[in-house]
Each structure stands twice: as structure tokens, then as C-alpha cells.
Amino acid sequence: MAVLNEAGRQVIESGALAHLVTINDDGSPQVSVVWVGLDGDELVSAHLDGRQRKLHNLRRDPRVTVSFEGPGANAIGMRNYLVVHGLARITEGGAPELLHALAQTYVGPGTVFPPMPDPPPGFIAHITITRVGGSGPWTRGAE
Amino acid sequence: MAVLNEAGRQVIESGALAHLVTINDDGSPQVSVVWVGLDGDELVSAHLDGRQRKLHNLRRDPRVTVSFEGPGANAIGMRNYLVVHGLARITEGGAPELLHALAQTYVGPGTVFPPMPDPPPGFIAHITITRVGGSGPWTRGAE
Predict the structure, then answer these.
(1) Rounded to 5°, angle at Cα B38 from B89 and B124
(2) Are the Cβ atoms of B31 and A65 closer than 8 angstroms?
(3) What 8-state DSSP symbol labels residue A140?
(4) DSSP helix, strand, coil percent of chain A (3-state; round to 5)
(5) Which residues does chain B have within 8 Å of residue A108's beta carbon, measured at their own beta carbons?
(6) Which of A19, A23, A76 is nearest residue B19 as measured by Cβ atoms?
(7) Local confidence band at B2 (pLDDT 50, 70, 90 cut-offs)
């Protein structure tokens, strides 16, 4: 299993948005921009609605790729970015709690989230990292 | 053909980074973060090196999805984003000129790009838009 180095972990924990790519039934790419966090060496994302296309796709084909814009740029001014390739498994429950935790970074400290009474338990996607790429200090010693 | 509305065009012309997704030989997603511009109703990106994985992929399967972080957020604080689905065709030449033009937005006015003498002619990917999605004012009246 590939492990993110400290620079890669910092990108994710900074609240960078995750461009989460799954594969549709017809083989075309599907992209959603979501919040993700780290749970040990895995990425985790929370989904209140289990009928989402991305969850449907991940149940059929667990291969997932997630890209993030990073801090800094290379020598010629092209922005650093982190790409995480992995395999997802979906578990039931815990989505409101994870969304609340992520909202503290993605929206701001003190945010109450989800902003609804009695949210459904939802689903969590746990992504085991298989490869780290992109352009930046996370590609050195990370693969 | 789907056409971007003005709000969608503004996201791209603002210099938002493009998370460009192609499909690898084994059906898994490949992501690169690149610069893109508009040429009429098409997206265009420039590539000096014709051996790039993304160009290889697009020659085999022209389906491409490009996501951008947009300005603003929805009512519950989730950031707007633009997703463009399309079909790419690759043409030879013109990459240095397009990169130079894009660098004026992505790096800054007056940037000399590519920063090398005698760059190769390279390749341009022209993406015809088939569908516009994501979350933001570009999904209203755009599809």
C-alpha cells in the first residue's frame, strides 16, 4: 500500500477540495468535488444520500482517483497538485458526524453541519491508497 | 452540442485550474491538472510532449471530463464547481503559442512561456462540450 508523505497529508488536512473521479457504467469518467479527510492512511468522504451516482459507481468498480490543488508551483510557474489513486469500500452510517468534522475545516470553525434536524446516517467511502502522483513534494518518496 | 453559459465561460477565463480526466487502457481514471482556454465554444489545452499519457488516452478514447473550482458556494457552504464533459480531438502544432497566451492568465501578465528556446510545436487538445454539470450558476440553462 502506498502511503502519503507528510506534505501530501498536509494538502488534504488544509481543506483543499477533492475532485473525486469514479467510472460510469459506460466507462466514461464521473467527477464530483467533495470534502475528504484522513482516517489513518485512508481517505474518507461522507455521503448523506446513498443513491448518488458516485456511490453507485464505486460499488460496481472501486477504482477511484482524487485530485487536489496544492500550495506552491514548480520552477516555471505551474501549480503543484496531488493525485491519489485508490480503491474504495462503502460502509453505512456515520456520515453526519464526518461531515460535521470536515465542515470545521472546509467551512470554518464552529460550523454546525449538516444544517438539518435528524440527518440520515448516510454512507462513508473509505479509500485505500494504491498510488500517489501529481506534481509536488508528495511525489518524492511517496510511491 | 452543449454550450457553456456566461458564468461557466467566466470560470474558465478566470484562470481556474482544469482537472483533466482521461481513461487509461485498463479503464481506470487518469487525472492531470492543466491550463485550458476557450476557443469559441470548445476548450483547448496545449501539450509540448506528445508522449503524455493523457494524449495517448485521448487518441484511444476521446471522452474527457474537466472539473474546475468556481467562485462562491451554495447555501450550506459547499463550494461551487464546474464540470465539463466532452470529446477531444488532438491536432499537431501551436502548443507554444497557446501556452504563452494561457500563461498571461495562469502565471501573470508579461510572462514569457514556455521558458525555453525553440520549444517543439507540440499538440493541442480541442474539446467539444457534450454536457455541463457540477454545482453553480452554469448548470442552469446550460444543458
Answers:
(1) 35
(2) yes
(3) S
(4) 20, 40, 35
(5) 77
(6) A19
(7) confident
